[in-house]
Amino acid sequence: MRVRKVFAVLGTLLALAAVVPSGAGAAEDTQKQGAKKPTIVLVHGAFADASSWNGVVERLQRKGFPVVAVANPLRSVTGDANYLRQVLASIEGPIVLAGHSYGGMVQSAAALGNPNVKSLVYVAAFAPEKGESALELSNKFPGSTLGDTLSTIDIGDGSKDLTIQQDKYWQQFAADVSRKDATLAAATQRPINDTALTEKAGEPAWHAVPSYFVVAGKDKNIPIAAQKWMAERAHGRAVVEVEGASHSVAVSHPDTVADLIVRAAR
């Protein structure tokens, strides 16, 4: 009888041991929680929408990263940055921000003072210094042919919305993307208000936050010389040049862009 009671007690203890985590197991769980991957927040620029990040999103999600591709209003640097700032405030834990084109203007402002933003990735994007505008930066070096491809929409408040003429979109914006995909992007592009391109930037976050750059070798919107110059000025941790890439480098080379974002997230 006593032997049976001993075995019964041992059985109960083993069952409890299986249910209650040991100190080592609890420490392991805590370690896993501490190693939570940062959320990747992607900010599109002018003449595009959040779907322009689809290839990058797919690759980041496969690697286990939570991703948010923000719908950038494209109304003004200040207003767009305020919107992005609210999106960032809704996210718990560390964040890596990646912006394309004008999205670089927005993320540079929105990340300022946010301790959760661990790094900034500029993808064929503006990395402005205080007092600079997107228009000024795009014209700082020769090579941009964007102005000749634009159409305007008078929106009744003294400002104009700008779009790229659909028949010129492929060669201007996405020459290394299939014509079919470029035609779809031209039809679904979001216009930007002209005042957003002339608004001067405030203090940029890249002064305090590590930055990474993808530069597009055959960009007709932001000349590669301007992209390299901004990357050097910001002391970018890494600068990846994609030879032959159009302004739509995130669409045509999603692996390269995703790999740099992952590097920035480490």
Folded structure, characterized:
The chain has 266 residues and is an alpha/beta fold. The chain has a single domain (39-265), classed as 3-Layer(aba) Sandwich (Rossmann fold), CATH 3.40.50. The protein is 43% helix and 17% strand. The protein has helices at residues 2-19, 23-34, 54-62, 77-89, 103-110, 134-138, 166-173, 179-188, 194-198, 224-233, 249-252, 254-265, and strands spanning 39-43, 67-70, 95-100, 117-123, 150-154, 160-164, 192-193, 211-216, 238-242. Strands 2-1-3-4-8-9 form a six-stranded parallel beta sheet, with helices on both faces. Helix 3 (54-62) packs across helix 12 (254-265), helix 4 (77-89) packs across helix 5 and helix 7 (166-173) crosses helix 8 (179-188). InterPro entries: AB_hydrolase_1, AB_hydrolase_fold, Sec-Metab_Biosynth_Hydrolase. Keywords: Signal. This is Pimeloyl-ACP methyl ester carboxylesterase.
Number of strands: 9
Average pLDDT metric:
90
Rg on CA atoms, Å: 24 Å
Low-confidence sequence ranges: 1-34
GO molecular function, one term: catalytic activity
Protein name: Pimeloyl-ACP methyl ester carboxylesterase
Domain AB hydrolase-1: 40-259
Keywords: Signal
Outline the secondary-structure elements.
Elements: H1 2-19, H2 23-34, E1 39-43, H3 54-62, E2 67-70, H4 77-89, E3 95-100, H5 103-110, E4 117-123, H6 134-138, E5 150-154, E6 160-164, H7 166-173, H8 179-188, E7 192-193, H9 194-198, E8 211-216, H10 224-233, E9 238-242, H11 249-252, H12 254-265
Parallel strand pairs: 1-2, 1-3, 3-4, 4-8, 8-9
Antiparallel strand pairs: 5-6, 6-7
Helix pairs in contact: 3-12, 4-5, 7-8
